[in-house]
Amino acid sequence: MEFNSQTYQLERYPKTFDKSLRAWSNAELLVLDSIVNRNTETVHIFNDRFGVWNCALHDKKVTTIWTYASQQKAIRQNLELNKLSVEVDYKTPLDDLESVDLALIKIPKSIELFELFLQQIHKASHEKTEVVCGFMTKYFSASFIKVAEQYFEEVTQSKAWKKARLLILKSPKKKLQKKELVNTIAWKNHVLQQYYGVFSSGSIDVGTQFFLENLQLKPNELKVLDVASGNGIIAYEVTSQNPLAEVTLVDDFNLAIESSKINLEGKKAQFVCDDTLEKLDKNSFDLVVSNPPFHFEHENNIEVALNLFRGVESCLKVNGRFLLVANLHLNYSTHLTKLFTSVRVLQQNKKFQIIECIKKR
Questions:
Q1: What is the rounded average pLDDT of the residues 305-331?
Q2: Which of 50, 227, 258, 341 fits a 20 to 30 Å CA distance from 91?
Q3: In 3D, which of 236, 225, 237, 232 has the Cα closest to residue 260?
Q4: Contact, 331 vs 337, CB < 8 A?
């Protein structure tokens, strides 16, 4: 990737065998091209998934708003690859920012997450604050413009370049109606909460519903791991079935982890924001539960899930169980039989199946 007469090497993290996937998009390059001649020394960047902006803007005072643990690893990897300083000023989407002069956003798939970004920027804005948003035209909808117009007076689009466009926001609105960007979800006699941007918005996705309807713990399953835990609803159900159970929740998305902390307050729970299970003790869990992801923004990719499966096998005790729900077309059983000695489908409907794996060695 080339910017401002400099060439940068960029690699994806985690690595992928799909050669069509790059570590940058034309939308990110278009954003960079639009600011190349600016004198702004401070920049806030959002959704820099693999570090293209952190590398290209390394000579400026950059604040990176991170959302994924794997994103932090990707940024560090590519800074090191280009022999640049790995010291990054990180903030989460829930942190207050200092005065924002220029913000760059690669527009995420989630409109709600986009709004959370804009709200965070607006709180730290002044009359000259400008936000430059990049997007690929095939993924854009008018809903993003409607959200942007809630926070900024001027919302304009650029011409297209290599199927990418810019959405440029200026003149932050002076008066906004206070809005709490949290969804609530009714589950049995309880109400769960989750921040904007967390998977399935204000409802329980149908795959998780099917899993919960068929989840039955065994009396000896006291140490439980929830992988790709989302808002924590599966772990919550585990603790409801057995209040003595100790649950560990792992998710790559920091807003998912922060949501689950709300929902499991007072429970015997630990929370880990990470994209792997490498930091967890080996052979230590009686049960692992999961609704593993295969959508990453606009990509469908099961490679991350397969890596998680290997981590699950390592974390399980001998004779421990791994229960997961999966779309039928993913054919996970074929991959799981390479890791576990016993793999069987417990329940199945027209769209999903619940798979049980037993570790026998």
A1: 95
A2: 227
A3: 232
A4: no
Using alpha carbons only, what angle is made at residue 111 by residues 15 and 43, rounded to the nearest 5 degrees? 70
Which run of H or of E encompasses 249?
strand 246-251
CB 339 within 8 A of CB 307: no
Distances in whole angstroms, Cα of residue 82 to Cα of each of 8, 43, 104, 277 = 6, 20, 22, 28
Q: Please say whether the beta carbons of 84 and 57 come within 8 A.
A: no
Kindly provide the b/e burial profile for residues 104-135, where b requires at least 16 CB atoms within 10 angstroms of the residue's own CB.
bbbbbebbbbbbbbbbbbbebbeeebbbbbbb
How many angstroms separate the CA atoms of 360 and 229, rounded?
25
Tokens describing residue 274: 């990470």
State the helix-helix crossing angle for 233-241 and 206-214, rounded to 10 degrees. 10
**Cα separation of 6 and 181, whole Å?**
40
d(CA 219, CA 321): 13
Q: Specify the 3-state DSSP secondary structure of 45.
A: strand
Query: Has residue 149 got a pLDDT over 90?
Result: yes
pTM beyond 0.85: the answer is: yes
pLDDT in tens, 65-96: 999 999 999 999 999 999 999 999 999 999 99
Q: Please give the Cα distance from 110 to 199 (Å, whole number).
A: 9
CA dist 276 and 303 (Å) reads: 12
- Give the CA count within 13 Å in the CB-facing half-sphere of 331: 2
Q: Which amino acid is at 322?
A: F
Calculate the average pLDDT of the chain.
95
> How many other CB atoms are found less than 10 A from the CB of residue 247?
27
The C-alpha atoms of residue 247 and residue 312 are separated, in whole angstroms, by 14
Q: What is the pLDDT, as a whole number, of residue 195?
A: 96
Question: pLDDT tens digits, residue range 332-358?
Answer: 999 999 999 999 999 999 999 999 999
For 130, phi then psi, to 5°, come to -130, 140
User: Which residues are paired to 243 by β-bridges?
Assistant: none
